[in-house]
Amino acid sequence: EKGGYDHFMLKEIHEQPKAITDTFRGRMLADENIIKMSSVQDNLDKFLNANRIIIVGCGTSWHAGLVGEYLFEDLARIPVEVEYASEFRYRNPIITDKDVVIAISQSGETADTLAAIKLAKSKGAFVYGVCNVVGSSIARETHAGAYTHAGPEIGVASTKAFTTQITVLTLIALKLGQANKSLSDERFKNYIQKMQLIPSQIQKLLNIDSKVKEIAAIYKDAKNCLYLGRGFNFPVALEGALKLKEISYIHAEGYPAAEMKHGPIALIDENMPIFVIATNKGHYDKVVSNIQEIKSRAGKIIAVVTEGDVTVKEIADHVIEIPETEEALTPLLTTIPFQLLSYHIAVMLGKNVDQPRNLAKSVTVE
Ligand code: F6R
């Protein structure tokens, strides 16, 4: 059942190329230059005329929603807000029938997300679900939706569910961007071509496992870690920190890199590993200067960079290279090393990787 892997989490990390390919299937028709999603097509007016899209979710699914915010705004020029389902439902939110709510949930059973959907529906919003579990409560409660075809996710720490959620959100954003002409034919085509490469790029990226393991061995005894990223990779920093916390029980925080100097920089000393996403298109120069600030305070830098990077390589203590792609698609790649890192640290510390203490796979109580 674990397919030769020691843990479900490792199996699920390695399943990502296939899971994303399955999520593409029947939807991304590259030769015809179209994205076919009847759940979006049938409701195109609602999406295109929406005042805004509100994305709700919890935990990792909320992080996918944050990536969605960058995607929808950049590719389709539709305003987006992302909310924790638990906060949204209790703060008397202003919702009208001109709003579209996208609810994201792997299990489709999260109590707060389900309650947020019911509330949004009662105010007249159109509610679209992005779920993994077929026939789940959230899948049934939403007006329309798209399944992530990740297959069963057994490990409590979400991995392939996250990347397939981002995949679905990217497909929707591209489809809307094409429909409202925010994306030229040329840009749309280019994105589709780059999307198609993602599964094989992840496959290749998984070969960094031994390198990540070496880094894990060096930093496994850290008491605190920081994860920094900007733009599309800010949510990846949050997700990297969450993965480390939940399975290794090491305290970790994710921050947008520029926020570092507004507080967390006070924590930096030679015992503090800092994981920085510094891929080449995403505000690269700004991230490089953040890295220099950390170095001058003796912090240890582990940087995720684009293949062929030279500048960060010279300053960072360790670098992990990801293949080149469009900036908007980098979260699908930059996420992978952090999943592997958390996995290896948790194994080295003797933790129960698939069943971390105090956590449940689906949170059906608020
Ligand atoms: C993190 C994790 C949780 C879930 C959260 C939402 O690895 O698994 O943070 O992402 O409980 O769960 P779903 O997506 O099932 O609504």
What does this structure look like?
- The protein has 366 residues and is α/β, with parallel strands linked by helices.
- A five-stranded parallel β-sheet has the order 4-3-5-6-7, with helices on both faces. Strands 9-8-10-11-12 form a five-stranded parallel β-sheet, sandwiched between helices.
- The two termini are 31 Å apart.
- The chain has helices at 8-14, 16-24, 38-41, 44-48, 59-76, 85-90, 111-122, 137-141, 160-179, 185-205, 209-219, 234-248, 284-295, 311-315, 331-348; strands at 28-29, 34-35, 52-57, 80-84, 99-105, 126-131, 144-147, 224-229, 251-256, 273-278, 300-306, 318-322.
- The protein is 46% helix and 17% strand.
- The chain contains 15 helices and twelve strands.
- The model has no long low-confidence stretch (mean pLDDT 96).
- The structure holds fructose -6-phosphate.
- The site of fructose -6-phosphate has 16 residues, from helix 5 and helix 12.
Short recap of the structure:
This protein has 366 residues and is an alpha/beta fold. The protein contains 15 helices and twelve strands.
Rounded mean pLDDT score: 96
What ligand molecules are bound, each kind once? fructose -6-phosphate
**Major β-sheet annotation:** 5 strands, parallel
Q: How many individual β-strands?
A: 12
SSE topology:
Blueprint: H1 8-14, H2 16-24, E1 28-29, E2 34-35, H3 38-41, H4 44-48, E3 52-57, H5 59-76, E4 80-84, H6 85-90, E5 99-105, H7 111-122, E6 126-131, H8 137-141, E7 144-147, H9 160-179, H10 185-205, H11 209-219, E8 224-229, H12 234-248, E9 251-256, E10 273-278, H13 284-295, E11 300-306, H14 311-315, E12 318-322, H15 331-348
Parallel strand pairs: 3-4, 3-5, 5-6, 6-7, 8-9, 8-10, 10-11, 11-12
Antiparallel strand pairs: 1-2
Helix pairs in contact: 2-9, 2-10, 5-9, 5-12, 10-15, 11-15, 12-15
The chain binds fructose -6-phosphate (F6R).
